[in-house]
Amino acid sequence: MPRIFAYVRVSTAGQTTENQIREIEAAGFTIEPRRVVSETISGSVAAAPRRGFVRLLDKLETGDILVVTKLDRLGRNAMDVRATVDRLAGLGARVHCLALGGADLTSAAGKMTMQVIAAVAEFERDLLVERTQAGLARAKAEGKSLGRPGALSHDQREDVIQRLEAGASVSALAREYATSRQTIMRARNASAA
Is 11 known to be catalytic? Predict the structure, then answer.
């Protein structure tokens, strides 16, 4: 009889894993409390360096089942999730994802599902990049300035340049304009160019 583990993760201390545990139980999985690995860590961190996930890997044996509610519990992006599932499969563990109908991600159908999900994610990312670039090009063609507004206005830059030429120090001007020394130096360098 395979042992069943659950990996539940939240991103911040203000959140709880309780809903994930209830969702797993509602799906028909009975998991002993000692086999539930809970962790509070950002999803932007890959699975491999997470302390809780490393402890889980130490416990898993061939034939064990790992249950997660969503793919994003296993990694920060499609490639990380794929690598994590491959690592678990290498240990002989099966991975069930409730968001995918409880599919075993280590099976042939699960692997195909992962490939489709990765392809869709890449497609969506490419579309987002295309839309962003088109929007930036349109804004630029309309004469809109792009990027973050400068720390100094045009008049302030002119004053900074004049005062630097008169011998004022970069640090003193940065303090006076409540900005960084780098901003003052950029204004100086732009006037010299």
Answer: yes
